[in-house]
Design a protein that fits this description.
The structure holds two protein chains of two kinds. By secondary structure, chain A is of the alpha+beta class. Chain A has helices at about 5-20, 40-50, and strands at about 25-35, 60-65, 70-75, 80, 100, 105-115. In chain A, strands 2-1-6 form a three-stranded mixed sheet, with helices on one face. Chain B is an alpha/beta fold. The chains are: A alpha+beta, B alpha/beta.
Amino acid sequence: MHELSIALSIIDEIGDETEARGLNGVEVIHLKVGVFSGIDRDALLFAWGLACEGTPLEHSRLDIEIIPLVIYCAVCDQNRTPPSVYQLCCPACNTPSETIVTGRELEVVSLEVAA
Amino acid sequence: MNTRIVEVRAKVLRQNDLLAYALRDSFRASGVSVISLVSSPGSGKTTFLEKLLSVLAPEFRVAALVGDLATENDASRLRRATPNVRQITTGTICHLDAQMIKRALEGWRLDALDFLFIENVGNLVCPSSYDLGEELRFLLLSATEGEDKPLKYPTIFNSSDVAIITKMDMAEAAEFDAAAARRNIEGVRPGMQIFEVSAKTGLGMPHVFQFLRDTKSSNAQVAEAFPRAGNLQSTNKA
């Protein structure tokens, strides 16, 4: 469970952004979280409530978009969705692939702020 | 109340990543090979590292950072092999991050080292998110833990470079299926190099030592370009 550390990093990151751009009243934070990022969505939402207490983000909401695992198959020359997160191979030709295209994301995409 | 959307597109761990990149650059420039060890608690990281340090110490200049929530026990054990050991106690934090590594290295001259090992906190979940600037991440899995660990923790296996199956002297008693373990590792990290060892009996360890020597010699050209110092303790660190 390191979602509390992650929540604190998000708060720092947003603090830097809002300060640099002179933004106030962040209401929603849109995040991308890959299934291979090592972050659990529910644990992060739980940690968010705790981490924000007493900060300007106290009444904000996290909106988490889960990004699926996609690998690149060199044989098919295609991006593919593997059969599962523990079988990193092409579903069409079965060739193993270690090239991950998406699934590792852990990003603040955008903020909804008071207009 | 109306809202507007502001694009940010920032990695959450940007600060850690930036620090890790800077560490990696300084490790390369100093010619030190940095290897981190991750595993679940009790899978034999410290015993394995103790063996690595004691065998490599006569031949190379070695040092270790060792992370735990509490106690100096692991550092004390490792100091039997080399005095160059520092404990990082994380308190309640379940992983090491780049800032902890940077702080722990203060006062050490990296160019006076050939190998630096970083033993992470025993945990197969959290360390996967944090780049420490290491060159290689070794993942240790003990024969007594069972062969399905890679399937349960695919993220950390996938983020590691080399798998070390430890406690192979106990494989038979634990009815450990090494072929199944290899298949599972291959499933989550295709092409991953795997070593089967017992740090206690020495079984398989020569292959790991050879792998490390090869890693070192492939870095040698970079290292040779920089002047070397003989003493790890920096006397005049700003």
